[in-house]
Amino acid sequence: MTAAIEAAEAGQLFRFLENFRALGLAVSGGPDSIALMALMARWAGERADRPRLLVLTVDHRLRPEAAAEAEMVAAAAASLGLAHRTLQRPGAAPAANIQAEARTARYRLFAAAAAAENLGAVVTAHHLDDQAETLLLRLGRGSGLYGLAAMTPDATVEGVRVLRPLLGVARARLAATAEAAGLPVVADPSNDDARYARVRLRRLMPALAREGLTGERLAATAGRLRRAAAALDEIAESLLVRSGAFHPAGFAILDAAPLVAAPEEIGLRALSRLVREVAMAPYPPRLERLEAVYAAIRATARDAGELRRTLAGAVVSFAGGRLLVYPEAGRAGLPAFRLEPGQTRVWHRRFEVALAEDAAPVEIAALGAEGWRALPDTPRAGLIRAAAITTLAARRDGELVAVPSLALPQAPTGLLARHLGSLFADASMRP
Length: 431
Known about the structure:
Distance between the termini: 61 Å
Strand content: 15-25%
């Protein structure tokens, strides 16, 4: 008989969550997430200094039963003394790529809820069997080390921090835990729909296990690959720090020689990390595209030529032995919104901006070509126009009043900004 998770084991699993003040729990109503909710309710109730919990259920409006299932989760949460919110997916249901679109929408809703409710992160019930299936899925897609490392316990997805404390726990144990809690569970028919690759792989798992490819071994392999990836990432980041200059406006200039001379795997990882940091992309670039751009950089450096490519939301430009990487505006351009007094928001995934309670509202958008022309000569000195115009700027009544990354203005405006990328953490930025 499969054993349910007891309090002592849950305490070990959730130990890294203790420093949070508030957490969201992603609960769909399935056995996995119901088990997570029951375990965390008991864990949080053991001590007064444990995080405040808010249960989040997404109604994608893809099935007529979804609303009733969300109500069931709300009732179960209430029985455990937990607050609950149902998040509804906006817009029409997707006609294709339903699971992928639903996943993106789900995490965007979590991000919005986390911001509104001051949640430090959202906790999900991803488990050992999910990890094994993810490894197999990505192996079938020809993924590199990033992909084969599968899911991490701590990640950022669509702008929200996601914690996965149950990655080492088998699905069967979570089902036993949900049953022991005596809470109702729902069955999502998509989990048995053979149109989805993950479902087909799940049906193959018993046969794979007979050949030694158990869920435990596959998940352990993903863990070892993740460990190797972390070591390579550290080497790649060291290369970037040694050879790059990271401007607070959000672009980077590198001496390309160390990148070109590095072992290919290190060079690829360094380029991928650089692009992700500049664009604050939620995922690494596709491996085939990354390899092609890196090969082009090497060839261009060898021929002393020039190069301009786009990659995962960033522009990669090579000339004169230097590599310039800056955010791509894209066809739709960079976002714009009105920031009200007391508000804190994230602009283009890259900058967190906050406005003082006693300040007048500002419009937040890219500096743009017009803003560049309006800058005094001193801040423009040494800047590269194509990169600088993608940085954050604030306007009031159409007039440029602040470009925090360029230390403008001299007079206080009540606006604070910081770049969210770790490579830009030491770049000087004054409000």
